[in-house]
Amino acid sequence: MSKRVIFCEGLGKEFRIGKRELNKTLRDVLTDAMAAPLRALKTRFSANGFPGMATETIWALKDVSFDIQHGEVVGIIGHNGAGKSTLLKILSRISEPTEGRIGIHGRVGSLLEVGTGFHPELTGRENIFLNGAILGMRRAEITRKFDEIVDFAGVGKFLDTPVKFYSSGMYMRLAFAVAAHLEPEILIVDEVLSVGDAQFQKKCLGKMGEVAQSGRTVIFVSHNMAAVERLCSKVLVLENGRLIGNGQPRTMISNYLREGSGEIYVARSRTGHPQFLSAKICDVNGHPMDEPVCTEPFLVRLHFVLPEDAPGTQLGIGILSADGLPLFTSNTWDVNLEAPIKAGEYEADVLVPANCLLADTFHVAMCLWNDSEVLDLQEPAFSFSVDPGGSHLYQLDSQRKGFVHIDCQWEVRKLSVARGATAGGQGAS
Amino acid sequence: MVPNMQNNELVADRPDQDSDIPFLLIEPAKGWVSLKLGELWVYRELLYFLTWRDIKVRYKQTALGAAWAIIQPFFTMVVFSVFFGRLAGISSGEIPYPIFSFAALVPWTFFANGLSQSSSSLVGNSNLITKIYFPRLVIPISTVLAGVIDFALSFGVLLLMMLYYGIVPTVNVIWLPVFLLLALVTALGVGLWLSALNVQYRDVRYVVPFVTQFWMLATPIAYPSTLLSEPWRTLYGINPMVGVIEGFRWALLNSETKPGPMMLVSTAASLLLLVGGAFYFKRMEKKFADIV
Predict the structure, then answer these.
(1) Where in the sequence is the domain holding B180, given as residue range(s)?
(2) Domain segments of chain A: what residues?
(3) Which superfamily, per CATH, for A265-394?
(4) Which single residue of A15, A279, B234, B249 could bond B255 by disulfide (Cβ 3.0 to 4.6 Å)?
């Protein structure tokens, strides 16, 4: 019988919001005290309050309860700001819950970022030891696994070079190699898979799969629905700080994708970073529409902002099936298009050709990134259904499966005449 | 790390067959929390590595490198000797003024650097604090410890100067590590207060230079503490650095000022700073990751 290794009961985390709370200077506190001495004193000595602060709060997590059994691989999905990272931070003891409690049996290793504590001035060798110690490895353990880590990272030649001279790819590989050799009973991983190139991501996913198969408990946050479905035995869905789903990956993911996204995308707030502001489906003339028709081309119109000059920015979209399976992607890099890098607001139109999607529901994912990081990733951003438009070619039925229509060429040749056919003597020749 | 034994449901929840598997309960902390010094011991290797990192990177990409550890106290000594020793004519007793002030500047520099570096240590390591769990006390402690290397370098220069002036320390020199420890405890005590405050109030950054400047004037570095008569001299020990400096001079230069009751007052003040700082730090610790 499987054992419960983690229980979480009525977990809540309250944040006080507003810029004034962060890095207040003493002057603010004094000014507050001058303005309203009594009120300032009251807040100052109130139970939990930060001195002299407006008490506008937000619950990043509220009433979250779940159990995790030994050996389970649990995926946590949800939109940006749903509370996924907060949950991981509380599980990793970085942040303290405001209410509720969590019990954990076993040693926890958490990987919320690749390369935490790497120091640019130190060499690769030194950073392996430093990072290992930060992640909670014993020195003897690091020494034992040292060669393995170097092998995995493939940076042997540069072991005694300060990491500030590493390429970003080498840096990531070394950082991940150290983390991959962490052997806790419970592993907590944040969206670390969204960085690095495709090969790196594949390596990460492969290692995650290995860890999962070795019977350890893994909890991870990802936007990569295909990876979540492949690796996880259970999925938790968070929405606005509440746990709205807990169950089978396939069901959870398709519910999340179906309910989680509307027909257009609108950003919740301006973050001050490069981000998508809105996105929708339009016809070729740029008029918004609900359901594109299979036989007509249509536009995915993206509206995004770069608050400051952002060199190296790339822009891309992906079309996902109703289950979250990525079908194809398209980006500015592929088509050799210079994406804007100057500060400003922009609109981009991606023309999806006619006769390519079957009549089904699809999700649109969209991403802004540069060489070193993902700037904004919305997966999925919004959903749309495609109308068959009267043509049987695009209607899903017993003969027609899949997601896309590809115009293949057919040729059928006669190789020999079957015996039965000549005996019948009818219509064979 | 400590299971909550009062709670029957939780105890029943532990898998009995694997009692060696650690059980952790995460709950909102209420009121004053324990210091959890045992946990600090568990993380001693991290403390070692962070100290080692601070030492390694301290003088990276500087032209003069570790010479900076010597330059700072040495040139202060030269300036003091010219202005206070010669021009102002402050008496240093039988001891030549340069070594009188340098014997004070070596532990003082260790203290002042330890204080200012540890007070900015939490903010400087915010990337660690927001991404990984460990007892946060490790950060200011490792910062202060890393300063011991600088101390050792300038202490070497102090020994050379003693050789030059032909000063032979007495057997009292065995007390020197105690005085160094007292300086370390004081630096850490103040560093704990200031680093925790700095997480929330960045004013600390501006306060620290003032604090060290005034503190230096309030410490008998350029002048002997014998300027004060008893009982004021004993009371002067409330500033723990008074005890440290007088202790250094007594142990190394055999100055006539014996560390009597003043040393007890300094030790008590220093421990008070440390314990108070540690509790304040521990109480603020839970908010660090959210507001740093």
Answers:
(1) 36-291
(2) 4-60, 70-260, 265-394
(3) abc- transporter (atp binding component) like domain (2.70.50.60)
(4) B249
The pTM of this model reads: 0.76
- Architecture in CATH of A70-260: 3-Layer(aba) Sandwich (3.40)
State the smallest CA–CA distance between residue A379 and chain B in angstroms.
24
Tell if the CB–CB gap between B130 and A98 is shorter than 8 Å: no
Cα–Cα separations (whole angstroms), residue B286 to A96, A97, A257, A361, B23: 6, 9, 36, 46, 20
Over 70: is that where the pLDDT of A260 sits? Answer: no
pLDDT by residue for chain B (292 residues), tens only, comes to 344 444 434 444 444 445 567 888 888 877 667 778 888 888 999 999 999 999 988 888 787 878 888 998 999 999 999 998 888 888 877 888 999 999 999 999 999 999 999 999 999 999 899 999 999 999 999 999 999 999 999 999 999 999 999 888 888 889 899 999 999 999 999 999 999 999 988 888 899 999 999 999 999 998 888 787 777 888 888 999 999 999 999 998 877 767 778 889 999 999 999 999 999 999 888 888 888 7
Distance (Å) of CA A167 to CA A3, A116, A120, A205: 44, 17, 12, 22
Q: Classify residue A21 by its DSSP letter.
A: G
User: How close is the nearest chain B Cα to the Cα of A260, in Å?
Assistant: 28
Give a yes or no: residue B190 inside a domain.
yes
Q: Percentage of chain A with pLDDT > 70?
A: 86
Query: Would residue B151 count as lying in a domain?
Result: yes
**Nearest by CB: B49 against A3, A22, A133:** A133
Chain B positions in Cβ-Cβ contact with residue A29 (cut-off 8 Å)? 201
What ipTM does this complex have?
Answer: 0.82
* Tally of CB atoms within 10 A around A288: 12
Q: Which two tokens stand for residue B235?
A: 């009371």
Domain count, chain B: 1
Residue B115 forms part of a structural domain: yes
In 3-state terms, what secondary structure has residue B222?
A: coil
Residue B14 lies in a domain: no
Residue A284 has which token pair?
């070729």
What tokens were used for A164?
Answer: 């500030």
8-state DSSP, B254: -
CB pairs under 8 A between A and B: 118
Give the residue from chain A lying closest to B13, CA to CA: A4
> A232 Cβ partners below 8 Å, 6+ apart?
A73, A74, A75, A249
Give the span between the Cα atoms of A10 and A98, in whole angstroms: 10
